[in-house]
Write a structure and sequence with these properties.
The complex is a heterodimer of chains A (338) and B (734).
Chain A (H helix, E strand, L loop, with lengths): L4 E4 L3 H10 L3 E4 L5 H6 L7 E4 L8 E3 L5 E4 L4 H5 L2 H6 L1 H8 L4 H6 L2 H6 L5 H4 L41 H8 L2 E6 L2 E6 H4 L18 E7 L7 E7 L10 E10 L2 E10 L6 E2 L1 H7 L6 H11 L11 H18 L13
Parallel strand pairs in A: 1-3, 2-3
Antiparallel strand pairs in A: 4-5, 5-8, 6-7, 6-8, 9-10, 10-11, 11-12
Helix pairs in contact in A: 5-9, 11-12, 12-13
Chain B lengths: L13 H6 L14 E7 L5 E7 L1 H5 L3 E6 L10 H4 L18 E2 L5 E7 L2 H8 L3 E6 L6 H4 L4 E3 L9 H7 L2 E9 L11 E6 L5 E5 L4 H11 L7 E4 L15 H13 L3 E4 L14 E9 L5 E13 L11 H5 L4 E11 L12 H19 L3 H7 L4 E2 L4 E2 L5 H12 L11 E3 L2 E13 L5 E8 L4 E5 L8 H13 L6 E5 L15 H26 L13 E4 L2 E4 L6 E3 H7 L4 E8 L10 E13 L5 E11 L6 H20 L5 E2 L4 E2 L17 E6 L23 H13 L10 H5 L1
Parallel strand pairs in B: 1-12, 10-11, 14-15, 21-22, 28-31
Antiparallel strand pairs in B: 1-5, 2-4, 2-6, 3-5, 7-15, 8-13, 9-10, 9-12, 13-14, 16-17, 18-19, 19-27, 20-21, 20-26, 23-24, 24-25, 27-28, 29-30
Classes of the chains: A alpha+beta (338), B alpha+beta (734).
The structure holds flavin-adenine dinucleotide and iron/sulfur cluster.
The site of flavin-adenine dinucleotide has 30 residues of chain A, from strand 2, helix 2, helix 6, helix 7 and strand 8.
């Protein structure tokens, strides 16, 4: 671990000022990801700007009937918030599928969006990694890549984004509100994370002086027909091999609006409007779900050890859609797959 | 009188542990304590050509950086570095001895600072240049270079010919990856400088006297100069059998700086210690149509380091379990550029029996025989390697009781035949076997006139319950309530004990306690006889029992004298006895514990997700001293067996020779969600031959057989035979 300076931001403006003043500074919220990375010497901030006491902890209804969630709301509080449980159970489920109770108590919404990949080479400073050290090469391309990306990869990086919460947010069409020295801006969550292309060191489109202040959920929460299905190497407390956020509007057996996002397969939550469009107006049957899965997985490619994820993802999509259609969402407490 | 032995007595150290009163090696305070942080090599093989510590030394708070070029003297003969459990062949690791790099993660420097954070930070300022050499870390690609090691099991008959003529034959490779112990407690040492050149070393270890002798020989110290203490151990599972490098480094720094020094390894650094070596196990079985065996061969190829030959008995367990006129065993090692493996719970058996029991299951399928029935047809009443009967072997009863509790008779033998909704259901079973070892241990008991006794011994309690069983045996033998017994363990100045391992400590310590207590009883009886008007006057001093504070005539219970009276009359404040218990050597019988493990798995067929919904483990291990701690031991073994079957694997990138999942987020062990019903059955196994109390020990047997039972259940559920562990879902989807 490197030595660093520590400042506690007194308010948002202070945080923005501190961030602008020191290019090596990093924000710290729950610290559950950043401190691990500092212990491994992967992150070496010159200064930590502690934003954990800023008043960004509210969950408020918006004028149009959506919700605005402060960037510092702890993951646990969000998952168990009555409005989330009632109106956005897909989001609650995705959060509860992640990490452990202790980590969720510490982790913030903003930190969750910003968490970095779990690629083992990224964590090990003795190995080449373009994300950690641009231009050094990607050790995963021909190395241990069993849990690496199958979609949207580049020759520079095949890492995945490990967040569960983001997958549900992508499916729900969330917005990210950002504060910066010149004011505020808002972007769609699906535009927040990036594909690696030739700049894998950039995980997101958040600018260097910017701070996430809130997430906004649109009014429609798909509270009836949804499921978050996470497939992993043990029944809890492991990152996804593949995860699926599925949400449907059903009129009888006919699909109205459909949402589908994959986690654990790409550098960002993976959504395909084409796949969702293909479901619209169709009957909720395994065949149609399979077709949507194929569209979603179009272009999937494997490296030496992760080929299984393509077929697994397809199966998981179909199952999650079945769970959603039959209104029997995957429970995150009982690990038997519904 | 057994008021405590055989009951479910709660841990006597339980309260101290859950309230934090129990102190571990890294928690002892000392004046002006310094903190060391280990710098490790980042190449797998080669030489250090330059080690620049100047930047690290500039960091405020750094006191020194020890390296091979800058350190006090260390012993220069291999013999001095060989601890009690070091492999016979080889040249043990000497931390900071010279510029040679033998494995990735080898300690190469110790940064010592006023606080741990400073030491850790300064460690990033140490610059190292290497000259790299070609290296190899992959067992599978180096398999051809395997060298044979001596095995105790001699071949019998002509296994090759018998295999060739066998009516039904099964032969396959089973691959079990490298696994790490991951005890909860980090490896730590606090070496306390006592001002006059001596050290009190608080160390995480399974054997304080082993560490003490080792340190004395490595640092050329007199026995009185170094005292090693390890009152509590937060799990070790074999990883603490040998002195680990942090104890050498902390001692080295304390001697160099004449100050107290603490070294705590990080979780990641602990992956540079020992581990269960990866093995490729080739098992061949030849059977007659009636399900009896004609041939068994078992060859294991295991990883070892290039500098030490570590090998355990992976093969040969069939000699104990299954009758076969022809057998052949071979154990081979491949030298790789890795650290030396070490013992890990049921070393050899956890892996070797796993392969054997998977193979037996495959043979049962080929023979169309029930797996339990096959094992009964091959059942051996003798250890065939030596042709010896057992002191006791209630394995038949284990099969029967386990099968009954599990409901095995309701099993449909066809694979893929049982379902529960979307899940395939599989039932599998396996046999477990381990050795019942016993070692010389000495115990001192001090009985005071107020009816308290202090029992002390250098043995460790690595979490298994040694404190508790020692207190139980002493309480019963002295006829005192257990609250009146205090137990002191794991201090090198206490009476002799070997490292705690191999499941030998329960039997060994219990008999030592019994022996010392009997000397006390004898002395009390003699004193009682001598009292004027004693009702015990003409009694044989050996023929008394101590009960409820009284010395009682065994033949006439009414004739009794109180211990307090005797001691008062004899003007004794205390009676102290120390006894070294040696077990009589008996080569006429084999000594083993056994088990039958039954497993139920439920598998989501489309997604490959496996749940181990039930395990029944029926164990025959002689007398169970404490059913509560005993059950915990077996349950812990079962949970670990689930991990072996489904999760555990140390993953190395052989291009770098580096372990890439050196943390417990990515090195998977079972979490609560992975553990469902575990039913532990202790089968009665009276054994008056093995030792006086009939004790066999329980530390290892709980894991043996579990991985195979689960793998066999997975086959039964899915029809897929996964021979490469762990059984992850991608292997089922292939
Ligand atoms: C063992 C383990 C298992 C885990 N398993 C899972 C899992 O299964 N699924 C899953 O989804 N996650 C998992 N996680 C990750 C966990 O969800 C994240 O660590 C957590 O969400 C991060 O939140 P935090 O507030 O602690 O972030 P911090 O560690 O404080 O910060 C992380 C990053 O976000 C930046 N940041 C924080 N807040 C803001 C803000 N408002 N604006 C801009 N930047 C900001 C920081 O500068 C830093 O770069 C796991 C973590 C661990 C340690
Ligand atoms: S996949 Fe990305 S994070 Fe992993 S080694 Fe390659 S560049 Fe680094």
């Amino acid at each position: 671990m490197n030595n660093f300076r520590y400042s506690r931001a007194s308010d948002l403006a202070d945080a923005i000022r501190l961030l602008a003043a020191d290019p090596g500074a990093k924000l710290i919220a729950g610290g559950t990801n950043l401190i691990d990375l500092m212990k491994e010497n992967v992150e070496r901030p010159s200064r930590l700007i502690d934003i954990s006491r800023l008043p960004l902890r509210d969950v408020e209804e918006t004028a149009d009937g959506g919700l605005r969630i402060g960037a510092l709301v702890p993951n646990s509080d969000l998952a168990y918030h009555p409005l989330i449980e009632q109106r956005y159970p897909l989001l609650a489920s995705a959060i509860l599928a992640g990490a452990s109770a202790q980590l969720r108590n510490m982790a913030s919404v903003g930190g969750n969006l910003m968490q970095r990949t779990r690629c083992p080479y990224f964590y090990d400073t003795t190995t080449p990694c373009n994300k950690r050290s641009p231009g050094s090469g990607c050790s995963a391309l021909d190395g241990l890549n069993r849990n690496h990306a199958i979609l949207g990869t580049s020759n520079s990086c095949i890492a995945t984004n490990p967040s569960d919460m983001s997958v549900a947010l992508a499916a729900l069409g969330a917005l990210v509100h950002i504060a910066r020295p010149s004011g505020q801006r808002t972007i769609a969550l699906t535009d927040f994370h990036r594909l690696p292309e030739d700049k894998p060191h950039l995980d997101t489109n958040l600018g260097s002086g910017e701070i996430i202040i809130a997430i906004e959920l649109p009014p429609h929460g798909f509270a009836r027909n949804y499921s978050y299905l996470k497939i992993r190497d043990r029944l809890s407390y492991a990152f996804a091999l593949v995860s699926v956020a599925a949400a449907l509007d059903l009129e009888g057996n006919a699909i109205g609006e459909a949402r589908l996002a994959l986690g654990g397969v790409a550098h960002k939550p993976w959504r395909s409007l084409e796949a969702e469009a293909a479901l619209r107006g169709q009957a909720a049957t395994p065949d149609h779900f399979g077709r949507a899965a194929d569209l979603l997985l179009q272009g999937a490619t494997a490296r030496s050890h992760n080929g299984f994820k393509i077929d697994l993802a397809r199966r998981a999509v179909v199952r999650a859609l079945m769970q959603a259609a039959s209104a029997t969402p995957q429970s995150q407490a009982h690990k038997k797959i519904a | 009188m057994n008021a405590y032995v055989g009951t479910s007595t709660s841990r006597v150290d339980g309260r101290a542990k859950v309230t934090g009163a129990a102190k571990y090696a890294g928690e002892f305070a000392a004046d002006r304590l310094l903190h060391g942080f280990v710098v490790e090599a980042s190449i797998a093989r080669g030489r250090i050509v330059r080690l620049d510590t100047s930047e690290a030394l500039k960091v405020k708070g750094v006191v020194d950086v020890l390296t091979h070029e800058h350190r006090p003297p260390l012993a220069d003969k291999d013999e001095a570095w060989k601890d009690e459990v070091a492999p016979e062949k080889g040249s043990p690791l000497r931390p900071l001895y010279d510029n040679r790099i033998k494995f990735n993660g080898q300690p190469i420097a110790l940064v010592v600072a006023e606080d741990w954070e400073t030491a850790k930070f300064a460690a990033t300022r140490v610059r190292v240049e290497y000259e790299q050499e070609a290296f190899a870390t992959d067992l599978e690609s180096e398999r051809g270079k395997a060298k044979k090691v001596d095995q105790p099991h001699k071949p019998r008959g002509d296994a090759a010919a018998a295999l060739a003529r066998a009516a039904v034959r099964h032969e396959a490779d089973y691959v079990i990856p490298t696994e790490h112990h991951n005890p909860m407690e980090l490896f730590a040492t606090t070496a306390v400088w006592n001002g006059s050149g001596g050290l009190t070393v608080y160390d995480k270890t399974q054997g304080v006297q082993n560490v003490q002798k080792f340190l004395c020989s490595v640092f050329a110290k007199k026995p009185d100069d170094i005292r090693v203490i390890s009152p509590y151990v937060g799990g070790a599972f074999g990883s603490g059998l040998r002195p680990q490098h942090q104890v050498v480094l902390a001692t080295l720094a304390a001697l160099a700086l004449k100050r107290s020094v603490r070294v705590v390894l990080t979780r990641q650094q602990m992956y540079g210690l020992g581990y269960r070596p990866m093995t490729i196990e080739r098992v061949a079985l030849g059977a007659r149509p009636d399900g009896t065996l004609d041939a068994i061969t078992h060859e294991a190829i295991a990883v070892t380091s290039r500098y030490e030959d570590f090998s355990r008995n992976d093969t040969g367990w069939a000699e104990q379990l299954y009758k076969s006129p022809n057998s052949k065993f071979a154990h081979k090692l491949v030298d790789l550029d890795v650290s030396t493996p070490c013992d890990m719970r049921a070393p050899g058996a956890a892996t070797g029996v796993c392969a054997l029991e998977c193979a037996m299951d495959e043979l049962a399928v080929a023979l169309q025989l029930d797996p339990v029935e096959l094992r009964l047809r091959c059942y051996s009443d003798r250890d065939q390697s030596e042709g010896l009967p057992y002191t006791s072997k209630q394995l038949r009863e284990c099969y029967a009781r386990g099968a009954e509790a599990f409901g095995w008779s309701r099993r449909n033998p066809a694979s893929r035949s049982m379902r529960d909704g979307k899940e395939l259901v599989g039932w599998g079973m396996a046999t477990g076997v381990w050795e019942a070892l016993q070692m010389p241990v000495a115990v001192r008991i001090v009985l005071t006139a107020n009816g308290h006794a202090e029992v002390s011994c250098a043995a460790s309690d690595i979490g298994t319950g040694t404190y508790t069983i020692v207190a139980q045996v002493a309480a019963d033998a002295l006829g005192l309530p257990i609250e009146n017994i205090s137990v002191r363990l794991a201090d090198s100045t206490l009476p002799q004990a070997p490292v705690e391992g191999g499941s030998w400590m329960a039997a060994s310590s219990a008999h030592a306690v019994l022996g010392a207590a009997e000397e006390i009883r004898w002395e009390l009886a003699c004193l009682a006889k001598a009292m004027p008007g004693s009702p015990l006057a003409d009694l044989d001093a050996a023929n008394v029992t101590l009960t409820d504070g009284m010395i009682v005539n065994n033949d006439r219970r009414g004739a009794a004298v109180s211990i307090a009276d005797v001691m008062r009359h004899s003007k004794l404040e205390r009676i102290e006895k120390e006894k070294l218990n040696q077990f009589a050597e008996d080569k006429s019988h084999a000594r083993n514990t056994h088990s039958a493990v039954f497993a139920e798995v439920k598998i989501d067929e489309e997604l490959g997700i496996i749940r181990v919904t039930r395990i029944v483990n029926a164990v025959a291990a002689g007398r169970i001293l404490n059913t509560k701690t005993g059950r915990s031991q077996i349950m812990g073994g079962v949970v670990w067996g689930i991990g072996m079957a489904l999760h555990e694997e140390t993953v190395m990138d052989h291009r770098f020779g580096r372990i890439m999942n050196a943390n417990i987020a990515e090195y998977h062990i079972p979490v609560n969600a992975d553990v469902h019903d575990i039913d532990v059955i202790f089968v009665d196994e009276p054994d008056d031959r093995i030792n006086r109390m009939g004790i066999k020990g329980l530390g290892e047997i709980g894991i043996v057989g579990v991985p195979a039972a689960i793998a066999n259940a997975v086959y039964h559920a899915t029809g897929k035979r996964i021979r490469r562990f762990p059984i992850t879902l991608d292997k089922l989807l292939e």
